[in-house]
Amino acid sequence: MALIPEIPLIPLNDGNRIPQLGYGVYKIPESETPDAVLTALDAGYRHIDTAAFYDNERGVGEGIRRSGIDRDEIFVTTKVWWDRNGYDSTLRSFDESLERLGFETVDLFLIHWPAPKHDKYVDTWRALERIRAEGRARSIGVANFHIHHLERLARETESVPAVNQVELHPWLPQSDVRAYDASHGIVTEAWSPLARGRILGNEPLEALARKHGVTPAQIVIRWQLQLGNVVIPKSVTPERIRQNLDVFGFELDADDLAVIAGLETGERTGKDPDDLG
Fold this sequence. Notes:
The active site is at residue 54. The N and C termini lie far apart (47 Å). The protein has 277 residues and is α/β, with parallel strands linked by helices. It contains ten helices and ten strands. The radius of gyration is 18 Å and the shape is globular. It has a single domain (16-201, 223-248), classed as NADP-dependent oxidoreductase domain (TIM Barrel). The strands form two sheets. The chain has an eight-stranded parallel beta sheet with strand order 3-4-5-6-7-8-9-10. A two-stranded antiparallel ribbon has the order 1-2. It has helices spanning 33-43, 57-67, 87-101, 121-133, 147-156, 175-183, 203-212, 216-227, 238-245, 254-261; strands at 9-11, 17-19, 23-24, 47-49, 75-80, 106-111, 137-143, 163-167, 187-191, 230-231. 39% of the residues lie in helices and 15% in strands.
C-alpha cells in the first residue's frame, strides 16, 4: 500500500485548522460523487469541498459514510448559492445542506458569491455568524470576494471571515487579494487551481515538470502550497486524484517561482465576482 502523505494543517483565525490540500467535487454528477470521494479519502485526502450549487452534497455525505472514516477526521466545506443570499434564506439553505449531507455540522460554511447587485451579502454574513454561534458550522468564510467586498464586511459586521476562496492559478495569482487576506488573518483558498486544466499545456510548466520529474499539475499545486494557499484540485480519474496529492516530495526554487510568476495574464476561467448575480 502506498504511503499516505501528511497534509499540513493551516491555522484559521477562529482557532480551528484546515487541511492545506483538499479535494473539490465541482461538476461531478451526484451518482459518481460517492465513488470519487471514496477514492480521494483512500488516497489520503481529509478535506472535501462541495456546495449547494454543485448538486452533489448527498453524494459527498454518502461517500464519507461508506469510507468508514470517523466524521471528525474529515474537513467538509459547503456553500450557500448567491440566489439564496439574505438572512432567512441563508439559514434555510444551510439547513437543507445539512440534510443532504446527513451531518449535524460542517467544518466550513461559505458565502459562495457576493452577488453585489442584489446587495444581500452582508445579511448573509450575519446569518453565517449565527450558524457559527450555534455550533453548526465550526468556521465561516466567503468565496469570490474582492477586497472591497471584504472591506464592507469589516465596516458593517463584527467578525472577519476565516477563509476567502477565490479563483487562483498562475494566470490569475490574486496577489492583491492574498496580501489583503494575509494582513487581516484570512486564509486564501484557491478554486480552479489548474485553470480548469487549460494552463497545463503551457511550455514553461512542462519544462518545470521535466526538471522535477513530476506532472505540470503537480508543479502548479506545489506552487499553490508554497504561496501558503489552501488548494482544492478536482479530478475523477483515480491516478490523477493520487498524483494531485503527491506534491510533498519536491520543492520549487526561486528560479522556478519566477518562471511561474511570468505566466500572469489576469485571465479568468470563471466570472468576475462583481458581475455574477
